[in-house]
C-alpha cells in the first residue's frame, strides 16, 4: 500500500510537469487546441508503435471486446480519454496564465471532490469504499490546503473562468482514473487501458482542431524545442500508472496522493522556471505542505478498512459484503 502511495505521488508530479509542457507549447503556437491534439496524438503514436511489439496489449483489446459483449463493462467506460482531452486542453488554455501552482490546486480541488463521489458510488475497480473519519478529514485538509494556496494569488485578479476550467477538468480526471481502472481490470493490461484512453482523446481533439482551424486558421509554425513535444510521452506513463494504482488505493486516495506530487512539482517549476510575473507566495507554499499532511492523514489505517466488490458494468451500486 505504501509503495502504491509513493508511486501515486510521483505520478502526480508528472501531471504537473505535463501541464508546464503543454502550457508552453500552447503559448508557443498560440493555439491551445492544436497543442492538446499534438500532446494526445504523440502519445497515441508512441502506444501504437509499442503495440506492434507488445502481445499482452493486443490480447487485452480482445478481452475488452469480449467484456463489452458480455456486458461486464459498459461502453461509456471506454470514454475516459474525453476527460483526458479536456484536461490537456485546459492546460493550454489556462496553465500559462495562472501559473502551474495555481492551475494545479484548482485541478486538485476537482479531483478531491470527484474522488469522494466516485469512491462512494463504487465506480472504480476496487468497488465502493465507504467514507471513514480519517479519509473525510484528509479530504477536508486537502481542500483547506487548496483554499490557502489559492488565496495567495487570487489578489492578482485571476479570471474566475480560468479557475473553473481546471476545477472541472479535475473532476473529469477522477472519473477518468476510475473508468480506466475498470478497463485495465477487464483487459488485464494497463497498456490496453492507456491505448483506449489516447485513441478516444485524440479522436475528439482532432475533430475540435479541425473545426477551430477552419474558423481561426492553423498555427503559423511549430516550435523547434524538442521538449515541448514530450507531453504525450509523459501522459502515457502516468495514465498507465494510475490505471494500475486506482484498484489498490481507490479514487479518492489516488487523488489525494496526487496532491502532494502535483503541488510539489508545480511549486518547484514555478520557483525555478516561472512562466508568469506573479510571485509564489507564502500561502501557496504553506498550502502545499498542508496538502502533504492531508495525504498522510487519509492514508492512516487505510489497510484495516474493508471495501466491497467492484460495481457492475451498468453503473449500479454494489452492496457491502
Describe the structure.
The protein is mostly helical and 321 residues long. The chain has one domain. Helix content is 75%, strand content 0%. It has helices spanning 2-29, 32-51, 55-69, 80-98, 100-121, 133-154, 160-187, 190-216, 231-272, 282-299. Helix 5 (100-121) runs antiparallel to helix 6 (133-154), helix 5 (100-121) packs across helix 9 (231-272) and helix 6 packs antiparallel against helix 10 (282-299). The longest helix has 42 residues, at 231-272. The chain is globular and about 55 Å long. The protein starts with a helix and ends in a 22-residue tail after the last helix. Mean pLDDT is 81; it is low at 302-309 and 316-321.
Summary of the model, kept short:
This protein is mainly α.
Mean pLDDT: 81
Structural class: mainly alpha
The number of E-state strands comes to 0
**Strand portion, in percent?**
under 5%
Q: How many domain regions?
A: 1
- The low-confidence runs, each spanning 5 or more residues with pLDDT under 50, are 302-309, 316-321
Total helical elements: 10
End-to-end separation = 22 Å
User: Helix share of residues?
Assistant: over 70%
Can you summarize the main beta sheet? none
Rounded radius of gyration (Å): 19 Å
Shape: globular
Give helix and strand order, one letter per element, not per position.
HHHHHHHHHH
Provide keyphrases for this structure:
disordered C terminus; single chain; about 75% helix; 10 helices; about 0% strand; about 325 residues; mainly alpha
Summarize the topology.
Elements (H helix, E strand, L loop, with lengths): L1 H28 L2 H20 L3 H15 L10 H19 L1 H22 L11 H22 L5 H28 L2 H27 L14 H42 L9 H18 L22
Helix pairs in contact: 1-2, 1-4, 1-9, 2-4, 2-8, 2-9, 3-7, 3-8, 4-5, 4-7, 4-8, 5-6, 5-7, 5-9, 6-9, 6-10, 7-8, 7-9, 8-9, 9-10
Amino acid at each position: 500500500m505504501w509503495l502504491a502511495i509513493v508511486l501515486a505521488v510521483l505520478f502526480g508530479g508528472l501531471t504537473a510537469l505535463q501541464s508546464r509542457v503543454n502550457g508552453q507549447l500552447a503559448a508557443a503556437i498560440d493555439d491551445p487546441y492544436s497543442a492538446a491534439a499534438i500532446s494526445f496524438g504523440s502519445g497515441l503514436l508512441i502506444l501504437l508503435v509499442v503495440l506492434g511489439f507488445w502481445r499482452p496489449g493486443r490480447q487485452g483489446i480482445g478481452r475488452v471486446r469480449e467484456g463489452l459483449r458480455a456486458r461486464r463493462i459498459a461502453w461509456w467506460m471506454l470514454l475516459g480519454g474525453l476527460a483526458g482531452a479536456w484536461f490537456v486542453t485546459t492546460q493550454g488554455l489556462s496553465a500559462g496564465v495562472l501559473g502551474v501552482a495555481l492551475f494545479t490546486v484548482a485541478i486538485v480541488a476537482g479531483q478531491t471532490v470527484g474522488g469522494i463521489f466516485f469512491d462512494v458510488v463504487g465506480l472504480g475497480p476496487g468497488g465502493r469504499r465507504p467514507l471513514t473519519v480519517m479519509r473525510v478529514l484528509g479530504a477536508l485538509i486537502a481542500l483547506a490546503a487548496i483554499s490557502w494556496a489559492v488565496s495567495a494569488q487570487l489578489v492578482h485578479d485571476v479570471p474566475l473562468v480560468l479557475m473553473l476550467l481546471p476545477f472541472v477538468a479535475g473532476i473529469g480526471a477522477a472519473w477518468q482514473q476510475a473508468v480506466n481502472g475498470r478497463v485495465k481490470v477487464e483487459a488485464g493490461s494497463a497498456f490496453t487501458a492507456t491505448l483506449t484512453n489516447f485513441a478516444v482523446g485524440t479522436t475528439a481533439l482532432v475533430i475540435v482542431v479541425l473545426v477551430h482551424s477552419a474558423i481561426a486558421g492553423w498555427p503559423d509554425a511549430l516550435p523547434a524545442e524538442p521538449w515541448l513535444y514530450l507531453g504525450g510521452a509523459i501522459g502515457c506513463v502516468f495514465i498507465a500508472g494510475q490505471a494500475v494504482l486506482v484498484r489498490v488505493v481507490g479514487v479518492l486516495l489516488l487523488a489525494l496522493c496526487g496532491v502532494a506530487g502535483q503541488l510539489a512539482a508545480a511549486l518547484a517549476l514555478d520557483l525555478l522556471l516561472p512562466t508568469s510575473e506573479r510571485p509564489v507566495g507564502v500561502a501557496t507554499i504553506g498550502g502545499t505542505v498542508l496538502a502533504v499532511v492531508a495525504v498522510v492523514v487519509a492514508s492512516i489505517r487505510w489497510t484495516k478498512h474493508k471495501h466491497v466488490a467492484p460495481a457492475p458494468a451498468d453503473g449500479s451500486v454494489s452492496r457491502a459484503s
